[in-house]
Each structure stands twice: as C-alpha cells, then as structure tokens.
Amino acid sequence: EVQLVESGGGLVHIGGSLTLSCAAFGFTFSTYAMSWVRQAPGKGLEWVSGINSGGGRSTSYADSVKGRFTISRDNAKNTLSLQMNSLKPEDTAVYYCAKTQGDLIWLGMDYWGKGTLVTVSS
Fold this sequence. Notes:
Blueprint: E1 3-7, E2 10-13, E3 18-25, E4 34-39, E5 45-51, E6 59-61, E7 69-74, E8 79-84, E9 93-100, E10 109-112, E11 116-121
C-alpha cells in the first residue's frame, strides 16, 4: 500500500525558513518522480515543485517559489524534502507530498499524503 507521510510544518516568522519532509512507503521510491503541492486557506491546489527520478533528478519550481524553495530526494531513505527559505505570508498553506505515475514530473500525480500545515506570520 502506498503511503506518504509529511512532517516538518509549523509556525514561522516572515523571512524565516522551514524544511518539510515526506516519508514514502509501499512503492519503489527511486523510480518515481515526486512533487510538492500546496493549498492555501480558501484557495485551490497549487503545484509547488517536482523532482524527476533517475540520475539527473532534474527539478522544477512554480514561479511563486523559484529561488526560495529547494526540493531534494534521498532514495536510500525513501524521503522527499522541501527546504523553504525567505518565507512569506502567502506561503501559508497545507503542503502535500505527491507521487507521480512515472519517472517524470509531468506524468500526473496518483497518490497524496495527508499534508502538513505551514503558517507564516509576523
């Protein structure tokens, strides 16, 4: 059974940093691309960042987080991470880890975690 468990959310001040983690179970983590998606209060889902599988592990970011967030993966530990710097109030959201249907980000997501809440406040 595929399971994705996010952790690391919390309350952080404007300009602060936070690192989210996602532990993956039930599938061969190294062979699938992974993404982070968020949902701000009262808004729809927003794709944040993704990382392909394979040696290149190429990454992609939404314009709203480019230059501030860094996605990475540890295939040995079946873990996905999101380093978030220079946080803004508009980054406040529930962040979800998502598995894609193949080795590339753009193949679509088929499993999601339950999310972790990030609140950015003054």
